[in-house]
Design brief:
Two copies of one chain form a homodimer.
Chain A (H helix, E strand, L loop, with lengths): L2 E6 L7 H17 L6 E4 L2 H6 L3 E3 L7 H8 L20 H12 L2 E8 L1 H16 L5 E6 L15 H19 L6 E7 L6 H5 L12 E3 L7 H14 L2 E7 L30 H12 L3 E6 L3 H4 L6 H19 L5 E7 L7 E7 H4 L20 H7 L11 E2 L2 E2 L6
Parallel strand pairs in A: 1-2, 1-4, 4-5, 5-10, 6-8, 6-9, 7-8
Antiparallel strand pairs in A: 2-3, 10-11, 12-13
Chain lengths: ~400, ~400
């Protein structure tokens, strides 16, 4: 009987461990049904797998409390990596990978991650096929960016969106207290897709919302921005805008480019920072009123103390489903959410060809952005709203959240 | 029968509205006892009072749900101001203030705020005395900075500390996932006092803690910082430090001074930013590993979604007590917390002469900081721990927190 292995890869989210817990639950069922032997976890994804660093996860099959704590713990409990696998399926690196997998009689690989991890999933599938290995590979999506193709949304997005919308509503409270003209610029993560920044607009569902929201899907005009801010300042003293870190001018230059570090990651992505800071300096220079920028920063992807219940439940479910799909014979697939039609929000879980998903970017459709390019349409809020619904009661000890840790 | 008025002033906190709710509860009792007529609220503190902008708050006397929602709503529901009252008690500005107060038959003034607001409280008391006005003035402390003299701690600090400690523990989860050497610098608010930065160390009570914590109370050495970071990098790849925005070198220069805006507020405070960013650039240049800085920013003072139950309950209690003290004849006093001796945490509420408190700064005692000046002592954690205890269930609608708003 073959064993299974699960790995986590890419940037942390607040829900990636819920998906890991879901895979563990699915594997527990498969083991009970006599379909798999053991479940292993890669330490630090493919990077650790190559070095044979793995741990057995069977001990969590019967530990309901441990899995619950895991599912509320932010970031990747198994560790992560940012490793690009070779494009050539015959590369010797794959020989080393399969050697490790075969040494542990592994027949099922589950890889939880975002775009780059789906690239790894597709390549591992191709390498297995090239060598006629009987190993099934399933990608399980996670990314706060919500930018994976082929799925209605991604696990991890809902919790990030809930944090962003909540903090935006709180910053709006904070900014409302003074009578002096002031501009507050909230900078939200999102390199190419504006989904996270759009979440700032959700605050409208239960109170005030930012005056303007700027997504990277629409070319950003510095003049247009100053016009917008001046228009808002004529209406009320406390202007709040949300802006994506990835906004670019019509010529394709990042607005924050002046503040760029020039550093690139293993995938050639430019590290961004500074759109908010750049616009802060612009307002100070051109308008001259009080102005500050607030970069929401890391808590957007790791604020495990504020989870979307919908997100955590779906993240668990998609992990369980991944195992069921692998047991049913699927491979080279990424698990996806398909939103059901109808008034009530509901999703079903399906799968899609991972090689067609990897390296694509699903951006915010133009129909979700208003004509002026500085706000959202009602259709956008209708899409976003169900994803942040529900709260999760997490465990605290001495006033601090409890987190799962492997010993 | 005289009326009462309450105002909020200075920077927002997540608990300042709980104190307002407490004053309202206290006033409801006083009204029932026939001691006061109505309770008014200043809109935008003294600034609004001067312009006669106020609202009646009696409608909240019987609205338990409204007061509860108010007590969980961040920032100042009545609006705030940053207004420095004249030092000369005979200044004509006071004539205008007393004219407004007398027009509304106000005999009791409650002013909720931090250091600068206690300065206003002391000056208003002196101006009332100079004119032999029968108006009692009570200051009620609030500040996330925890830097007011004469009190064990300040309302608002506990919730800010809980947010900082929680996010620190989550950032530690986030940083632990990769195997590559990386330094993360968490920049925490606190101009002169390190109480907020110290709160990052609370994460040790329920998991890992930052490698080093740097408070403004100890002169900061750039060389010492680099030595610390290198020492930690030898032990593990993911180094996390917490640093106060206000750290200064031995010569008294702010570490973030290079990034200063040069702007000063009405009280002559320099706007700070950039200690974290400065240290990030230093590590990149001198050590060369991956490095990032995370400025916790505004959510430190307005994250109403993560409140300390101890803080909110105490904030309510000190507001109620303020009214009781005024009814008992006190004036020119600030309400304070006195921590009881003994194993179990308990505070009693008392009052102190506000003129002796205003404009002082209570910093972190040297005995709370380790000998090397880069961490906390157990005594510090013992002091801090009870203040973040307990959670508050706040109300959500459509996945977003509900906030109180005056119509």
């Amino acid at each position: 009987m073959k064993n299974a292995i699960v790995g986590q890869s890419g940037g942390p989210t607040a829900a990636i461990n819920a998906t890991l817990a879901g895979v563990i639950e699915g594997a527990a069922v498969a083991q009970k049904q006599g379909k798999i032997g053991h479940l292993f976890g890669m330490q630090n994804g493919m990077e650790g797998l190559l070095e044979g660093r793995m741990r057995e996860l069977d001990f969590l099959f019967s530990d309901t409390e441990g899995r619950e704590l895991l599912s509320h713990t932010p970031a990747s409990a198994l560790g992560s990596c940012r490793m690009k696998l070779p494009s050539d399926p015959n590369d010797t690196l794959y020989d080393r990978l399969f050697k490790v997998l075969e040494a542990h009689a592994i027949g099922y690989v589950f890889y939880i991650g975002g775009n780059d991890s789906m690239d790894s999933t597709a390549k591992l599938t191709a390498a297995a096929a090239a060598r006629q290995k009987d190993i099934r590979v399933i990608g399980v999506p996670k990314t706060i960016d919500n930018d994976l193709c082929g799925t209605d949304h991604t696990p991890g997005y809902g919790s990030a969106a809930k944090y962003i919308a909540t903090v935006t509503s709180e910053v709006l409270c904070d900014c409302a207290v003074y009578t002096k003209k002031a501009v507050t610029i909230i900078e939200v993560m999102g390199r190419d897709a504006g989904w996270l920044t759009a979440a700032a607009g959700l605050s409208a569902l239960n109170g005030p919302a930012p005056d303007y929201i700027y997504l990277p899907e629409v070319p950003f005009s510095l003049d247009g921005f100053l016009r917008d801010v001046n228009t808002a300042l004529e209406k009320h003293p406390n202007v709040v805008v949300a802006v994506s870190e990835g906004v670019r001018t019509g010529e394709g230059r990042y607005v924050g480019e002046a503040a760029q570090s020039g550093v690139k990651d293993a995938f050639g992505h430019t590290y961004l920072s500074g759109a908010g800071k750049t616009l802060e300096l612009l307002v100070r220079e051109k308008i001259g009123c009080k102005v500050r920028s607030v970069e929401l920063n890391l808590p957007q992807r790791c604020a495990g103390h504020l989870l979307s219940r919908v997100d955590i439940q779906e993240s668990l479910a998609i992990g369980r489903a991944a195992v069921a799909y692998a047991m049913a014979g699927e491979s080279g697939r990424m698990m996806v959410f398909v939103r059901e039609r109808g008034e009530e929000y509901a999703v079903k879980i399906a799968s899609a060809d991972v090689s067609e998903i990897a390296n694509g970017v699903r951006t915010v459709p133009r129909s979700y952005i208003n004509e002026q390019g500085n706000g959202l349409t009602p259709a956008c809020l209708t899409y976003l709203a169900p994803l942040v619904c529900g709260e999760v009661n997490i465990e605290y000890r001495q006033g601090l959240p409890c987190h799962f840790r492997f010993r």
